[in-house]
């Protein structure tokens, strides 16, 4: 039996761990059952990418530091430490969740956008699917990511997209979905009534960029404005399609994807 742990409600946990009084993460033999638990620590460092190793080690240090705190200190410690502790325990070490946490991005709360910070925009394109625009600002010191949904509309043609971008973004940077290269080039060549265009570039996409972008998003507390109704809906429905391959569903991502594009530019 080979598995990635899910929740303590799963029959495997109840039958093989709870009933047999076996501690999760153990490497032992109980009642002719051999338990083998592995993590990245069982793989030589040379077989990891430098980026992944640094990320896992950052999580490990936060995890170990958190476990040394008193209950009061744990309650009062930073949200970043709490997030890293939970992420390392569940995602990296393969711990069992106490309850189902199906959504990928639980690290968000409603709040006001901080307009004192520099900001840019992320954009996704569609026709039957919505074309979207989201305003994004980052506070690296406090690990806060401010998000404001600007529009989420289907059936927009090229002219309307330009008109709305020109009105909302002015000359502020927009990072768009680079899969729509022809559309981006066309939008960049347009001029508004003021004879000015828009500042639009395509997102940089590499192999594994979706997962790495999700991991980066999980490092921040997401501050979502009250009016961002569609974004909240996406955050409440964006789940893993396949946890074994770390593949998210290709849905409820029309705002989440452009947030990744913008964050990839801001947090370089």
Computed Rg: 22 Å
Cα-to-Cα separation, first versus last residue? 41 Å
Order of secondary-structure elements: HEEHHHEEEEHEHEHEHEEH
The counted number of beta strands is 11
Low-confidence stretches: none
What order do the strands of the largest sheet run in, or round the barrel if closed? 3-9-6-5-4-7-8
CATH fold label of the largest domain: Nucleotidyltransferase, domain 5
The number of domains:
2
Give the overall pLDDT as a whole number: 91
Please, how many helices? 9
The protein's oligomeric status is: single chain
Which architecture of the largest domain per CATH?
2-Layer Sandwich
Shape: elongated
* Biggest sheet overview: 7 strands, mixed
Helix-strand makeup class: alpha/beta
What is the CATH level 1 assignment of the largest domain?
Answer: Alpha Beta
What proportion of the residues form beta strands (DSSP E)?
Answer: 15-25%
Helix content: 25-40%
What does this structure look like?
It comes from marine sediment metagenome. InterPro entries: Terminase_L_C, Viral_DNA_packaging_terminase. This is Phage terminase large subunit C-terminal domain-containing protein. It holds the Pfam family Terminase_3C. By secondary structure, this protein is an alpha/beta fold. It has 9 helices and 11 strands. It has a 7-stranded mixed β-sheet, sandwiched between helices. A two-stranded antiparallel ribbon has the order 1-2. A two-stranded antiparallel sheet has the order 10-11. The longest helix is centred in the first third of the chain and has 18 residues, at 50-67. The chain is elongated and about 75 Å long.
């Amino acid at each position: 039996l080979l598995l990635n742990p899910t929740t303590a409600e799963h029959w495997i946990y109840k039958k093989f761990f709870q009933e047999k009084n076996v501690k999760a993460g153990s490497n032992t033999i109980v009642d002719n059952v051999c338990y083998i638990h592995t993590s990245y620590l069982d793989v030589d460092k040379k077989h990891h990418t430098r980026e992944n190793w640094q990320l896992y080690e950052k999580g490990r240090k936060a995890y170990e530091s958190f476990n040394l705190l008193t209950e009061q200190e744990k309650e009062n410690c930073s949200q970043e430490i709490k997030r890293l502790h939970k992420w390392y325990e569940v995602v990296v070490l393969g711990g069992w969740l106490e309850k189902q946490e199906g959504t990928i991005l639980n690290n968000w709360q409603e709040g006001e956008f901080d307009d004192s910070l520099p900001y840019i925009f992320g954009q996704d394109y569609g026709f039957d699917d919505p074309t979207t625009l989201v305003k994004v600002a980052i506070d690296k010191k406090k690990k806060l990511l401010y998000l404001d949904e600007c529009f989420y509309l289907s059936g927009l043609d090229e002219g309307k997209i330009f008109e709305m971008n020109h009105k909302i973004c002015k000359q502020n940077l927009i990072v768009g979905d680079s899969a729509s290269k022809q559309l981006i080039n066309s939008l960049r060549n347009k001029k508004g009534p003021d004879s000015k265009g828009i500042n639009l570039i395509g997102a940089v996409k590499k192999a594994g960029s979706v997962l790495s972008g999700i991991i980066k998003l999980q490092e921040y507390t997401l501050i979502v404005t009250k009016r961002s109704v569609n974004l909240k809906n996406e955050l409440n429905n964006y789940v893993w399609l396949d946890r074994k391959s770390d593949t998210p569903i290709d849905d409820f991502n029309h705002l989440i994807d452009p947030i990744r594009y913008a964050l990839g530019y801001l947090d370089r």
